[in-house]
Amino acid sequence: MSEDEKRAGAEYCTVVTGAASGIGLAVADKLLAAGEKVVAVDLNEERLRERFGNDPNVVGVSCDLTTQDGFGSLTSAIKEDFAGVKGFVHAAGIDAMAPLGMIPAEVAQKLFAVHAVFPMQFLGWLGKKANHAPEASCVLISSLSAHEGAKGHVAYAAAKGGVEGFLRPAAAELVAKGIRLNAVVLGVVETEMSKSWIGKLSKEQEESLRRDYPLGLGKPEMVADVILFLLSASAGWITGQTIVCDGGHSVR
């Protein structure tokens, strides 16, 4: 049987990284509620099973996206079960708070590998005709930390700056292939990752942080709604853009 025959009638999927928690989980849940097929990617295999069980609309892939083996596991799983990718949301992320001058090189490299290098590689793979739907949409996640001073977030901010740095050149290459690429630039969203450093603040510091967000700190579900809009045909005239979602932080 030829590859075309094998793929005939197969469905397209949306790939969501970091799908076992936080923003990735909120996105995956909303996609599934809308009847979409999801490739849920996360480093934590146990959490993937807990979150999605035996849902027939989910293909779970547990892998380290910073390794070639992990990258190969993901692309193989997509090819095995689907005709290609119609959507991609890179919600996987890590942070490593440390003052400037106390950031180990390997930590900075890991941050860049997760936030910037992997999506560049995946988008390059996705751009090949056989790997994507005729019209596909991709959403990356950046952070306000790449735009304003935030002590201790130097390496994280640099990695997110890398995301925004390659966004428009990549969008320019992908648009001719029918693939849209945008990013959401987020203020503080209450996820497990952010709570790990918010919990280290003093009461006064936390109160000050919350005052900086007139609409409150973000919730994963709020961000997921924006991401689903960018994935949808309703955003079909938008590509290469960064959409700021910050609870009023920038206009306070």
Give descriptors for this structure:
7-stranded parallel beta sheet, 9 helices, 252 residues, alpha/beta, single chain, 7 strands
Describe this structure in words.
The protein has 252 residues and is an alpha/beta fold. It has one domain: Rossmann fold, CATH 3.40.50.720. It contains 9 helices and 7 strands. α3 (45-52) links the parallel β2 (38-42) and β3. α2 crosses α9 and α5 (105-126) packs parallel to α6 (154-174). The longest helix has 22 residues, at 105-126. It is globular. The model has no long low-confidence stretch (mean pLDDT 92).
Name the CATH class: Alpha Beta
Strand coverage percent: 15-25%
Helix content: 40-55%
Q: How many discrete domains?
A: 1
Radius of gyration: 18 Å
Report the order of strands and helices.
HEHEHEHEHEHEHHHE
Compact description:
With 252 residues, the protein is an alpha/beta fold. It has helices at 3-7, 22-33, 45-52, 68-81, 105-126, 154-174, 192-198, 203-211, 220-231, and strands spanning 12-17, 38-42, 58-62, 84-90, 132-143, 179-186, 242-245. Helix 2 (22-33) packs across helix 9 (220-231) and helix 5 packs parallel to helix 6 (154-174).
Task: Indicate the topology.
Elements: H1 3-7, E1 12-17, H2 22-33, E2 38-42, H3 45-52, E3 58-62, H4 68-81, E4 84-90, H5 105-126, E5 132-143, H6 154-174, E6 179-186, H7 192-198, H8 203-211, H9 220-231, E7 242-245
Parallel strand pairs: 1-2, 1-4, 2-3, 4-5, 5-6, 6-7
Helix pairs in contact: 2-9, 5-6
